[in-house]
Amino acid sequence: PRPLLPLLSLAGLKGSVGPKGAMGNKGDMGTPGDPGLNGHKGDQGEQGVCNCTDGEHGSDGSPGEMGPKGEKGDTGARGVEGPIGPKGDEGMMGHMGPPGPCSPTIRSAFSASINESFPKQNEPVPFPDVFYNLQGNFDPIMGIYTAPINGTYVFSFNLAVYQRPLRVGLFHNFYPVVKSTDSAQQSTVSQTIVLHLTSMDKVWLQVKDGTTNGMYSSYESSSTFSGYLLYPDSCGMPMLRDLGESNKGEKGVYSWNGP
Ligand SMILES: *[C@@H]1O[C@H](CO)[C@@H](O)[C@H](O)[C@H]1NC(C)=O
Ligand SMILES: *[C@@H]1O[C@H](CO)[C@@H](O)[C@H](O)[C@H]1NC(C)=O
Ligand SMILES: *[C@@H]1O[C@H](CO)[C@@H](O)[C@H](O)[C@H]1NC(C)=O
Where are the transmembrane segments (predicted)? Predict the structure, then answer.
C-alpha cells in the first residue's frame, strides 16, 4: 500500500526516467509442468517370421479347398429286399376279351340193347333194355333216337348174329345210311358212324326182311345200339317244347330202301 505522505510538504516536479538497471540474477528453476497428453497410436509393425519347428501344437487349420470329383465307384452288392409297398390304386377296366369256347349245357346220349331176338322187318328195331338214356332222346320201345339240336352225332351198334343171316341198316330219316350183312354163323356185326343231324332228325336200326333178321339176344350175347351228341353246331339251346314233342317216336312202316 501506498505510504501516507505528510500533507504539508509540497511535491516537486516529477524526475526523469532513471537508467536501465543491471540484469538481475538468474531466477530459481521453476516447478515441473503438468504431463503432456498421450501421443497418437503408431503404425502396426511388420509381421514377424518364425521358422519354429518345435512350438506347441497349434490349433486346427481351416479346411482346404474341395478336391476334383473322383471316378465312379463299382456297383455295390444288392441290398436286402424292402417291405411290400401299399396296394396300388385300381386300374382302369380293360378291353373286352374275345368270346370264350363254346360250353353248351345240352347233352344227349343213349345206349340200349334188344331183349328179343329176330326183330320185325319194315319198322325200327326196339331196344327195350336201356343202359343209359338220361335225356330221354331215345325211345327204347320204338327204337328211335331223335336229335335234340343241330350238331354232330356218333352212332354205333354191336349186334350178335346167330341162326339166321343178318342184314341191318342204320336209318337216318327213313333212309338207310350204312348197311351191314353177316352170315348165319355165330358172329357180330358192328359199325360206328359220325353224322351231322338237324334238330328233330330221327335215327334207328332196321333189318331188311323176315329171313335176314338174325339179330340175336341171350344171356350170353348182347346186341346194343348207342349214340351221343359229339358237339352241337352252336351254343344255342333248343326250344324245350320242340324237344318234348321230338322225343316220341312214330310207329310206321319203313321200307329197307327208303320211302
Ligand atoms: C527362415 O528360414 C528361411 C529358409 O530356411 C531363411 O532363409 C530365413 O532367414 C529364416 N528366417 C529366420 C528369421 O530365421
Ligand atoms: C322186352 O321188352 C318189352 C318192353 O319192355 C317187353 O314188352 C317184352 O316183353 C320184353 N321181352 C322179353 C323177352 O323180355
Ligand atoms: C338247324 O339246321 C336247320 C337246317 O340247316 C336250319 O334251318 C336251322 O335254322 C338250324 N337251327 C339252328 C338253331 O341253328
Answer: none
